[in-house]
Amino acid sequence: MQSLKVDIFFFMMQTSGTSNLADLSSFQDLSHNSTLRSHTEAPNPSEPITNAYHEPRTFTDASPDLYPYLQHRNSLTPYAQRTTDLTVISTGLASGVKTYIIMPPTIYGIGTGLFNRLTIQVPTIMRSALRTGQVLQLGANDGDVECVQCEDLADLYILMARRVVRGESEDMPSGERGIYFASTSRYTWGDFADGIAKALFEVGGIKTKEIKKVGLEEAAKEWTGGHQLLCELNFGS
Predict the structure, then answer these.
(1) Average pLDDT over residues 116-138
(2) Whose CA, among 14, 98, 102, 163, lies 20 to 30 Å from 152?
């Protein structure tokens, strides 16, 4: 009787709850041939509103010092999502598990799945505008920000997972170098606010297209339950 060799692949594709450290225990003791641990995170390099940190460099996922940089930033300002990233990588290295972290910027569009089909920034600002009657923008910040459409991002997950299960991931960096940026286009926060205001005005959701610029405290109360660091990194970085 001919023996069969079977490769076992464990998948843990975390696409929400990106600050959840508890689920890492499920692969801490694994040492299988090829395990994919994919985690979604957003790159948040600067804190331009409070000026607590300003990063002059523009990173790419080919930057060789990206992992040490994340460690350095987290030593200055611990941030739950960044802590999870670092724990994913260090646990994978210690366990012999290949890890891949996908870092999309602002995600937009309506998903096609059965459960949550919305992202964060656009729906949050739209709901806020419907409550207050006007679109808010965080401070005078009009920085250039990257974005990706949700179905394009989903395709990236599929492509990466397919390569792993087919044994075609030898040239895919993992661990400390396995951090992937998923950007396809750019926008400014001013254009972002203007687009939402015009769309809501046209359907009668609000009565003015004028943008109201607010401080971090007010914006955090409206958008992130008062969490100012979370607000700054997700709506002003």
Answers:
(1) 94
(2) 98
Helix (H) or strand (E) holding 180: strand 179-181
Please state, in angstroms and rounded to a whole number, the distance separating the CA atoms of residues 158 and 146: 21
Q: Is the pLDDT of residue 60 over 50?
A: yes
Q: What three-state secondary structure class fits 149?
A: strand
CA–CA dist 56, 60 (Å, integer):
13
pLDDT in tens, 168-202: 988 999 989 988 888 899 899 999 999 999 999 99
Q: CB–CB of 117/55 below 8 Å?
A: no
Residue listed under structure tokens 């972290």: 101
HSE of 91, CA atoms in CB hemisphere, 13 A: 23
**Global model pTM greater than 0.85:** no
CB atoms within 10 A of CB 183: 18
What are the tokens at 68? 């040490």
Q: Which residues pair with 168 in a beta bridge?
A: none
The structure tokens 């607010």 sit at 214
6 to 13, 46, 161: CA distances (angstroms): 22, 46, 18
Half-sphere exposure of 59 (CA within 13 A, CB side): 21
Q: Across residues 83-107, what is the average pLDDT?
A: 87
CA angle 7, 165, 102 (to 5 degrees): 130
